[in-house]
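TL;DR need structure tokens for one chain.
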Amino acid sequence: MNKNKDVEKIVFAAILTSMALVIKIMFFYIPLPTVIKNVDIFIIFIVFSGILLGPMFGGFVGIAVDLIYLLVVGGDWGFFTLAHFSAGFIPGVFFLFLKYDWKKLIIVLLITLSVYFTITLYALYFYYGWVINVETVSIRLPRYFVTFIISLFAIHFLVTDARLQTFAIYKHFNKKNGKTIA
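>> reply
TL;DR here they are.
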């Protein structure tokens, strides 16, 4: 029984990894026609994996998304891999000990995205220098705000939608949060 549960988690983590990877590549190459340029929508699936599967699976989904992305487009960005790991690990740790709630999601998402965006800004500083980092902050702040708003509603929908609750992977999550789904 425990082996089946682990297989379910691995398969679900692989599905979330592939969804995040497709969206990351799609939104990277199809920029928005605004100052924001593109939005980190892929982070939704990394945070969701941390909430639903726990901190280690969430962190590994983040690492897998970044490493596979680097295999596809190339490059060497170690700090961004750390940022992706934190995007799955931090919400996993919080919701390992807390019951899911809309207000708690707002706080956890603010903390997670703050750490994620701080690491990415530091990576830009490390790789490109202070001048480029200062110039990009004013462009990246609206992008981060849009990412937060979209992520908040999307993750809440993924966690609470009744149609998704029937999947076997939700059983442990629903039991911990006191929900019973037929």
